[in-house]
Task: structure prediction
Amino acid sequence: MYELQFTEHSLKEERSLDGNERVFVDKTFQRIKERGMEAGRPLKGELKHCRKLKNKKHGLRIVFCQIDNKIEIIEIAAMGKRSNLSLIHI
Result:
């Protein structure tokens, strides 16, 4: 089981979710805790060291990366609609 660490941006986004979105996010967090960096699909470009999980119905995506070369800690870098992902600074 892996530990999740949140950025200030991702905590703010999580607090703004409604009930249905929160169900998806909670299930996604559990999947990341269980599978670590094996969960999700790899990203490209500047974020190629990150992975994403998304829910098209709600327009949400969760971007996460390994930090400190330790798989035990996964950082939820951002979550929210794609237009908000430009705020990531990793």
Notes: DSSP finds two helices and five strands in the chain. The radius of gyration is 12 Å. The chain has a mean pLDDT of 79. The helical segments are 8-15, 19-35.
